[in-house]
Design goal:
536 residues; mainly beta; Immunoglobulin-like; 14-stranded mixed beta sheet; 49 strands; 1% helix; 38% strand; globular
Length: 536
């Protein structure tokens, strides 16, 4: 069997031709394990690694010799609609590469994209991460992944360079429980380098924080960050943050503090909510020499004890177009470092002295705060109350527009933000829909699939049915390898609001027993994915 089954010519701007290869990993593929590939092949610009569905019980070292480019990165891609799982159950994630790894993916490579993969159960007892960026790792992207129950979700060292980009990814329930009696926290995200996170769902940190970074510069756009055992967003100080413009920008996020004390048996923090600097206390070894730009976020306290903003005296906040709801404590101390305009705060809260144009009330009129639907009703006093030209400075001091163009859409997606020429406050523009968990109204919320499992031999009409389908929606059906076998339309059997499938492919042949995935798509681009178990 050939080790390279596809070769592509990649042509760079200078005219140099580089041959890119595609490698396959999985049962019956060229490589049965990911390590089997990475330990024997050096990846080059444009190379693609296809990892097929299955469970991979291994820690993988991605060496520095793997060098993609900005224009032609190395792509490591999970294939099919069911994400391949990198599972650390039973592994001891210790030691240094190449003989050992301290994380499920230990990355020293440059310009590499990891997408459509699931990581779990790695490093809970020894502090390993799902993905750890080490010295020399440069411009790493993580996209459409799921990370849970690891010691740390994603981490980076001070030697990691470039900017980590994480998109459309869920990170949850990460917890470090050392077996040697030492005290450690573990966080869902813990970085020492610059980063950009977009359209992510980061929630339920097992012990520590949902998002912690000591990097010089951080961007958080349109994320749903909720229910940490300790702090939700913790951007603190280090050697990286003493330089000018050690800034952060948070735009269009939904940030929610849990309405409970720290979990029993674990240290936690039920007061601090968003921190900028201050990890070492005032007068610590390092400073946070920059500004956090909070623009059009919806920030929800779970308890009256929660304090929205904290900082040390060298750090500053600029807050515009936000909704702060659920606590009367904006901050304690350092109020002169907090400026901004056109924010909504509770009527019992004292606005920082640097605020102007502040709106106050008892309720910003969410559709349903109890179910966490923070879209606005028509009665909301925050509609059209924002400034239209929010801006921020990046890590180099360059100015950019901070106008939100998108909104978070559950799960781990985005949707274009409505625009009527005047910004509303918060993460959602009025009229963009509704839905608990930070998503807009799901047009497929009431879809039912029956019978499921579908046993063809005992079905009277030999049809599996999906009802409550929006008008004009379509359905694509895929096999376990992600190959499309059938496309159907709403009303395909002459019954409106329904799709019927007879268990056959496009050629009219009956498909074998197994699990099939489907995707529903409406005219607005909304999608719903599901599974059908077909039995003969």
């Amino acid at each position: 069997m050939k080790k390279i089954f596809c070769i592509l010519a990649v042509v760079f701007a200078a005219g140099t031709v580089v041959f890119a290869a595609t490698y396959t990993v999985g049962a019956g593929k060229t490589y049965s394990t990911i390590k089997g590939l990475t330990s024997t092949k050096t990846l080059s610009p444009g190379d693609i690694v296809e990892i097929y569905p299955g469970t991979y019980n291994e820690g993988v070292y991605w060496p520095s010799a793997n060098k993609g480019t900005v224009s032609s990165p190395i792509i490591v891609r999970g294939m099919g609609l069911i994400k391949p799982v990198i599972d650390g159950t039973g592994l001891s994630l210790t030691g240094a590469p190449p003989s050992g790894t301290d994380s499920l993916f230990m990355v020293y490579s440059e310009n590499i994209v990891f997408e459509n993969l699931e990581f779990k159960n790695g490093g809970v007892s020894d502090g390993g991460s799902a993905i750890r960026l080490q010295g020399g790792s440069n411009n790493i992207t993580v996209r459409n992944c799921k990370i849970s129950h690891c010691g740390i979700g994603i981490s980076s060292s001070t030697a990691a360079v470039g900017t980590l980009i994480v998109e459309n990814t869920e990170i949850a329930n990460c917890l470090w429980e050392p077996t040697d009696g030492s005290t450690h926290w573990g966080h869902n995200v813990y970085l020492q380098s610059d980063s950009i996170f977009r359209y992510c769902y980061i929630h339920d940190s097992g012990k520590g924080n949902n998002f912690k970074s000591r990097g010089h510069y951080t961007e958080l756009w349109y994320n749903y960050i909720a229910d940490a055992n300790s702090i939700e967003v913790d951007l603190v100080e280090s050697t990286n943050t003493t330089a000018a413009n050690s800034n952060a920008v948070l735009v269009g996020n939904i940030i929610i503090k849990r309405n409970a004390a720290p979990k029993s048996g674990y240290a936690g923090n039920d007061v601090q909510f968003i921190m900028f600097g201050r990890d070492g206390g005032e007068g610590g070894a390092f400073a946070r020499n920059g500004t956090m730009y909070l623009l059009n976020n919806t920030i929800i306290a779970g308890m009256a004890a929660n304090k929205f903003l904290d900082a040390n005296s060298s750090a500053k906040y600029l807050c515009s177009n936000n909704i702060f709801y659920g606590s009367n404590t904006m901050t304690t101390g350092f109020t002169n470092a907090i400026t901004g305009s056109n924010n909504w705060i509770p009527s019992g809260a004292a606005a920082p002295s640097g605020f102007s144009g502040t709106l106050q009330g008892t309720d910003p009129s969410f559709i349903n705060a109890v179910s966490r639907d923070y879209h606005l009703t028509a009665a909301s006093a925050v509609i059209n109350k924002g400034i239209n030209n929010p801006s921020y400075l990046d890590g180099s001091g360059a100015s950019h527009s901070g106008v939100p163009a998108y909104e978070y859409l559950a799960p781990v997606k985005s949707v274009a933000r409505n625009s009527d020429g005047q910004l509303d406050l918060g993460a959602f523009e009025y009229g963009s829909g509704g839905g608990g968990g930070g998503g807009t109204v799901d047009p497929f919320a009431n879809v039912k699939t029956y019978p499921n499992p579908f046993r063809l031999s005992i079905s009277a009409d030999k049809m599996i049915k999906l009802n409550n389908i929006p008008a004009g929606a379509s359905m694509d059906i895929f096999d376990i390898n992600g190959s499309k076998i059938r496309s159907l339309k709403e009303g395909n059997a002459g019954i409106s609001s329904m799709i019927l499938w007879d268990g056959k492919n496009e050629g009219g042949d009956s498909v074998p027993s197994g699990t099939y995935m489907y995707t529903l798509l409406d005219g607005a681009g909304n999608k719903k994915k599901g599974k059908i178990a077909l039995l003969k």
